[in-house]
User: What shape does this take?
Amino acid sequence: MKILTRFRPWDAIVLLTFLLAIGAIPALAQQAPTMPREMEHANTVPGPPRERSTSVTITLGENTFTLDAAALGAMPHETVTVVNGHTKASETYTGVPIAALLVKLGLPFTKANEHTLLKTYIVAEGTDGYKVLVSTYETLAAIREKNAIVADSINGQPLANDGAFKLVIPGDTRPQRWVQNLQTVTFKTVE
Assistant: This one.
């Protein structure tokens, strides 16, 4: 009996062709474990179970403030309609634009701040530890036609399972950067 001591790409092609010929690959695919339907579209990461967000902390350098639902509700709101790439459904979110948070932090979108905003990014984190990175510049309507928002309602109703807050980025064809149960939005600048 000959034992292969060195893997060759040709061996993999031969093995794959053989498995296809005898029909083993479709059988293996049928035996593969599947994800429960309710988890297919969730932002899941290993760690603690998702808890509902009740406040969001916004930070830029030394400037930090925390907003609860009432405080966020008192800020200027915008409405964006997007197609959720997971559900293929049209959804209408209302919330505070990232641009309004930048104004509150003292970094409004102006010509004088444009170069700083070009090298500033956001780290957004949910209560379950799910984190995303977004260029601050691409969250502004002047660049992408619609502002990214910290949403507090969907289709005229509170977010419910998504927590009190959710980062929504219009223009993303897949919502992987939309953070449910949003708890922190940290702006950082590359020096």
Q: What stands out?
A: The longest strand covers residues 90-97. The chain has a mean pLDDT of 82.
